[in-house]
Amino acid sequence: MADLSPPLPKLIIFDLDYTLWPFWIDTHVTPPLRPNPEHSSATDRTGEQLSFYTQVPSILDSLRSAGVLLGVASRTSAPSLARQLLTMLHVDVGAETRRALDVFDGRLEIYPGSKIRHMEALQARTGVAYRDMLFFDDESRNRDTEKLGLTMWLVRDGMSNEELRKGLAEWRRRTC
User: Fold this and answer.
1) Ranges of each domain in the chain
2) Which of 6, 29, 79, 117 is the most buried if burial means most Cβ atoms within 10 Å?
3) 133 vs 49: CA distance, rounded Å
């Protein structure tokens, strides 16, 4: 696990597709969705199993436990399907299990459009300064969000403890 001792960003934002889960929700998933009994995955109409990358649940738990606010910025054209899957997937947070949707406490910007617009909405909702934000995304074109003053870390093969470590190191290098 990454070093979660201070300093830490006040808000960490994640893209969904190929960052938190290994598919494009708007093209690879066919509704309806059915959660498995443990809510660790869901299955779509074609039988495709849908879940987070393996280390994502523990990453979300660790960051929440460290007091970091979490958000989502996704430009998917299937926002209701993304929210539905976030409702079906559950994450252990401390001693309780919560819907993944609830781990983000409403800090969800899931709609087509510019990631800059997503970041501006998250900043307005939270009041967190851009310099105190770290954004994980798999698309290099979204580096344009850095002109706002936040740090973006390019995720190569899905979110992992190693990507978290590298992203935090880059945020610390730029802000400390």
Assistant:
1) 11-175
2) 29
3) 32
- Selecting among 3, 15, 44, 105, the annotated active-site residue is 15
15 is catalytic: yes
Contact 48, 30 (CB under 8 A): yes
Task: Retrieve residue 106's tokens.
Answer: 């409403």
Catalytic residue among 17, 132, 137, 138: 17
Q: Give mean pLDDT in consecutive 10-residue pieces for the chain, a chain of 176 residues.
A: 92 99 98 97 98 98 96 98 98 91 96 98 98 98 98 98 98 96
Hey, which CATH number is domain 11-175, 3.40.50.1000, 3.30.70.330, 3.60.40.10, 3.30.420.10? 3.40.50.1000
**pTM assigned to the model:** 0.97
